[in-house]
């Protein structure tokens, strides 16, 4: 999802003209009818994630000064906003702008809770390709990216002075002295969220991507690459390099505990874990995931948080203008400084603020290598059967091929039952 082409976002209209009319003359304005002075609202309501408002306040003040529109910022837990919008929107007391993780875009769009937006190519190319793809559903763009996150390689510098370049190196380390640790590397590879990076690196896919549209009838989780990837994952369990306790729901907390106790030299985890590890007194290093034995990158799931326009907003064009403004390069940089949320802005990948920040740089680079988590409703049917296949293989209760074929069969049946046309 990068080429260093991004420039600070500019607007075509002079400030004096903007005071008298809507954004219809702006080259990056959103679609729909053209707005007149009467259409310019006195106020827009924006729902921001809990404890993240500090990252947006500066941008909002600039927007208010530029356009003369008051923005009422409210902090609401991000995962609660969909349900609240469902109730408040029809009652005409909802927001104009919300923030949500990209994997909810499909369900939100299908339910008619968010509206597509139209922006120019000059705007979309500010962001990484994968972050724009993540916010696209059925060929339509449903917001602009706020931040990105993905699993990376985290290591204890006391036990592992440098990040290895390949998993062959990780394997050799894990079979050697392990820097004095009990385990060289641990990953929650019976959780499909983490394991998919390995499977995808070998050539699997969840749903076939047809020019930006995901085909839920074309599952790639039991193809040759998927089987090869699960063979590789299973080898870590068979060789005793992973403890028996890191299978299933307890795996994540067990891995965290062992790393915080200094009993494991390196782990696969996301940026949400950084502070906890630091609080435990671990001097952590962070890098992109090492290359797989086949020479390919680990293609981790990337998650993108975006700002979206409510379908119930009477001011959709101005709401989209606000989204465009607060996610531009300048404002994204300020938000990163205040919240540490990593913006998928192409130019910022080389800006010292991220380039000189080891952890942020690792997440940014790994996000380039990853794939957006599918944002269609059918993805809900994937998690449990896929995890079951991983666990059956890891415990030796099923061969990888048979486990994956069974999972794909179950996923297909559940998609037909729960998402097929009635």
TrEMBL record:
Pfam families: SBP_bac_8. Residues 32-51 have a biased composition (Basic and acidic residues). Residues 1-19 form the signal peptide. It comes from the Bacteria. Keywords: Signal, Transport. Residues 22-51 are annotated as: Disordered. Belongs to the bacterial solute-binding protein 1 family. This is Extracellular solute-binding protein. It comes from Fictibacillus nanhaiensis. The lineage of its organism: Bacteria, Bacillati, Bacillota, Bacilli, Bacillales.
């Amino acid at each position: 999802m990068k080429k260093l082409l991004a420039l600070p976002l500019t607007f075509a209209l002079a400030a004096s003209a903007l005071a008298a009319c809507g954004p219809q003359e702006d080259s990056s304005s959103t679609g729909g009818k053209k707005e007149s002075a009467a259409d310019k609202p006195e106020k827009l309501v924006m729902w921001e994630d809990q404890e993240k408002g500090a990252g947006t306040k500066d941008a909002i003040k600039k927007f208010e000064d530029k356009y003369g529109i008051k923005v009422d910022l409210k902090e609401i837990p991000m995962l609660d906003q969909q349900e609240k919008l469902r109730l408040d929107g029809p009652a005409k007391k909802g927001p104009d702008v919300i923030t949500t993780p990209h994997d909810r875009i499909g369900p939100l769009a299908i339910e008619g809770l968010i509206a597509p937006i139209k922006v120019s190519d000059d705007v979309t190319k500010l962001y990484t390709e994968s972050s724009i793809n993540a916010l696209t559903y059925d060929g339509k763009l449903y917001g602009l990216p706020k931040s990105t996150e993905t699993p990376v390689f985290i290591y204890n510098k006391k036990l592992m002075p440098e990040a290895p370049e390949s998993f062959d190196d990780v394997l050799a380390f894990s079979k050697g002295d392990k820097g004095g640790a009990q385990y060289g590397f641990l990953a929650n590879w019976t959780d499909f969220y983490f394991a998919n990076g390995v499977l995808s690196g070998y050539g699997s896919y969840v749903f076939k991507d047809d020019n930006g549209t995901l085909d839920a009838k074309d599952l790639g989780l039991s193809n040759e690459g998927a089987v090869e990837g699960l063979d590789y994952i299973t080898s870590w369990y068979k060789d005793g390099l992973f403890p028996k306790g890191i299978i299933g729901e307890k795996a994540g907390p067990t891995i965290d505990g062992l790393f915080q106790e200094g009993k494991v030299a390196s782990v696969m985890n996301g940026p949400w874990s950084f502070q906890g590890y630091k609080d435990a007194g671990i001097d952590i290093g962070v890098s992109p995931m090492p290359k797989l034995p086949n020479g390919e990158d680990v293609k981790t799931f990337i998650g993108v948080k975006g700002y979206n326009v409510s379908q119930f907003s009477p001011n959709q064009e101005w709401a989209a203008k606000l989204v465009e403004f607060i996610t531009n390069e300048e404002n994204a940089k300020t938000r990163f400084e205040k919240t540490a949320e990593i913006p998928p802005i192409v130019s910022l990948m080389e800006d010292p603020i991220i380039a000189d920040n080891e952890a942020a740089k690792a997440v940014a680079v790994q996000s380039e290598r990853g794939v957006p988590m599918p944002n269609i409703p059918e993805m809900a049917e994937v998690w449990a059967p896929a995890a079951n296949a991983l666990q059956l293989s890891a415990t030796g209760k099923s061969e990888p091929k048979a486990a994956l074929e069974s999972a794909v069969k179950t996923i297909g049946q559940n998609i037909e039952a729960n998402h097929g046309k009635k």
